[in-house]
């Protein structure tokens, strides 16, 4: 099968997200200028550079009470900071609950029953108990093609790692089993890893 996206795919559901998998989930926490802590998962998320460390996530769609975008992008645009919380398998239900569309003046932390702790380098909260969190300052918000599509770029200013996830000086993802996003309504979890030696090492 071959299709051009502009002409449609003719399938029951769009296969694009099922092809580009697995994707890490950036559980983005922000704080509005009104002091409300926001939390939302984004599967268009990844690291982009080592030095300085940088990450990106993309927001698609808009909310009725946030014309043209969503709470996360609005808050980051206003405050210049955000935190990426890493989602473990044990927090899958809370992550899913935080994806609900709720009014901007309500906190997804409260909606999902999650405790929060202050970040160290930015005026923002992170999810208490996550395996890792990346505190970020805004580099740029880039409009993408399509309605309400934005890519947010950030520089990592602080990195939190849960102590039990460090094994012999390495961050061991099998100790907490990262949740990953697939296509449709599907997710997966990382339980096994293997290494490959690069040819020029």
From TrEMBL:
Residues 18-173 form the Flavin reductase like domain. One of its GO terms (molecular function) is oxidoreductase activity. Gene3D superfamilies: Electron Transport, Fmn-binding Protein, Chain A (2.30.110.10). Its EC number is 1.5.1.-. Keywords: Oxidoreductase. It is an enzyme of class 1 (oxidoreductase). InterPro entries: Flavin_Rdtase-like_dom, Split_barrel_FMN-bd. This is Flavin reductase family protein. It comes from Lacimonas salitolerans.
């Amino acid at each position: 099968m071959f299709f051009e996206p502009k002409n449609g795919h003719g399938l029951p559901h769009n296969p694009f997200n099922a092809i580009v998998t697995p994707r890490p989930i950036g559980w983005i926490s922000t704080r509005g200028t009104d002091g409300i802590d926001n939390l939302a998962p984004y599967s268009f998320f990844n690291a982009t550079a080592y030095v300085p460390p940088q990450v990106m996530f993309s927001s698609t769609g808009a909310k009725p009470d946030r014309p043209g975008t969503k709470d996360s992008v609005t808050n980051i645009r206003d405050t210049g900071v955000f935190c990426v919380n890493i989602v473990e398998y044990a927090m899958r239900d809370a992550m899913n609950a935080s994806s609900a569309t709720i009014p901007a003046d309500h906190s997804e932390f409260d909606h999902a029953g999650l405790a929060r702790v202050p970040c160290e380098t930015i005026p923002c909260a992170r999810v208490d108990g996550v395996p890792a969190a990346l505190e970020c300052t805004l580099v740029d918000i880039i409009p993408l093609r399509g309605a309400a599509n934005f890519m947010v770029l950030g520089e990592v200013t602080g990195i939190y790692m849960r102590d039990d996830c460090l094994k012999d000086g390495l961050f061991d993802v099998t100790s907490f089993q990262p949740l990953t996003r697939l296509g449709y309504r599907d997710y997966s979890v990382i339980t096994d890893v293997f290494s490959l030696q690069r040819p020029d090492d």
